[in-house]
């Protein structure tokens, strides 16, 4: 009987949290993140670069932030540091990234995938942070990027490529003289929170401190649809991940200090 009551309680909180998120689709949450108004009262549009490691990172982990920014008219760019060629299907996964980007309303000309021998998908080889920083610098100068968003030092899942991307971005922030470019990292959560689904929106707001922002996904179905474009990766456990992962419903961003 106790287990049944616990299950019912969790189910009620889950549904209430999901309703809160769906409500935000009609009444968007007024976050102060990139919401600085100019003298005319309109939002200043920014060029924001997401730096990821593999095709599907954008849909599995960063879609709440991407949806938040595109719905407010900001220009989104994606720099994917590998084709995800660990299983020899890098060309397929590259095309899947483009298809997912269409769903996420990111223009294809603003999506770049790197296929470099020093940045290959997999374990056992460290991606050179200095080389990654130089690639990042060229991208930023070419597109007048105002802000970078990437993984934190743990990289959500602990994947070495995710962590190396963070190191490369951090290297860039230390090397650059461009003081106006901000860098933000996606905060990794513990395993309980990671699989708490929409319930984590309450914990995310409660744990905010310092230079952090919590962005609720205003279009969770769009995120699911975007991930489904990665057909080569769309196996049963990733379907479960997208359904139950808190990263489908909310992103907590923390500023990377120079």
TrEMBL record:
Residues 1-24 form the signal peptide. One of its GO terms (molecular function) is N-acetylglucosaminylphosphatidylinositol deacetylase activity. Gene3D superfamilies: LmbE-like. Pfam families: PIG-L. Its EC number is 3.5.1.89. GO terms for cellular component: endoplasmic reticulum. Keywords: Signal. Belongs to the PIGL family. This is N-acetylglucosaminylphosphatidylinositol deacetylase. It comes from Lactuca virosa.
